[in-house]
Design goal:
The protein has six helices and two strands; from the N terminus they run ααβααβαα. The radius of gyration is 22 Å and the shape is elongated. It has a domain of 117 residues. The protein is mainly α. It has a two-stranded antiparallel ribbon with strand order 1-2.
């Protein structure tokens, strides 16, 4: 679609600014239910601990001595992963998602090295172990996050998509009428 005759598209800088403004306003206004927050927090914590336990079992250079270090390391990784994901996705909203995910993988790598140095009971053999641990943790955390994702009506991204679709970006109207086909089975 092209703009109407006599109208120009807004400059790219204004579109970026409008998108970031919408992101910031939605982050400020969006409020999930308390039950959704509690459920997501508990399931995310359990998923982070399970992912860390699986990673420690698979990688010979990563070891965790007992349940207490596992729970504390899972909590710290979950907090870091959640906060860095929000910041990276917000800052890089106009870029392809894999860039934010790649940077998140780097954050995960640094977090594993730091946990191995500062948390008693967690040992990381070398940087190769930390790198493979970051990859495996990222994959497992992504899998578990999809399994416990909040419902579509309650998620931040569904609200963002609804608001973006509802906005008018000065696009031309379709010149012809369309056809709507509804199929009801059952």
């Amino acid at each position: 679609m092209t703009p109407e005759v006599g109208r120009e598209s807004p400059p790219a800088s204004r579109r970026w600014l409008a998108l970031y403004r919408l992101q910031a306003r939605l982050m400020w206004e969006w409020r999930p239910t308390r039950l959704a927050i509690l459920r997501r927090t508990v399931l995310s914590f359990l998923g982070a601990c399970l992912a860390l336990a699986i990673t420690a079992a698979v990688l010979p250079g990563l070891s965790i001595d007992g349940l207490a270090p596992l729970l504390l390391a899972g909590l710290l990784l979950l907090a870091l992963d959640s906060s860095s994901a929000v910041v990276l996705h917000w800052l890089l909203v106009g870029w392809p998602i894999f860039i934010a995910q790649t940077l998140g993988l780097g954050v995960q790598f640094v977090a594993i090295i730091v946990l191995g140095r500062v948390l008693p009971g967690v040992r990381v053999g070398d940087t190769a172990t930390a790198a493979w641990g970051a990859v495996l943790l990222t994959l497992l955390n992504s899998l578990f996050a999809e399994l416990v994702a909040v419902s579509d009506d309650d998620s931040y991204y569904s609200m963002l998509v609804r608001r973006l679709v509802a906005r008018e970006f000065r696009r031309a109207k379709e010149p012809t009428t369309g056809l709507l086909v509804v199929r009801v089975d059952g």
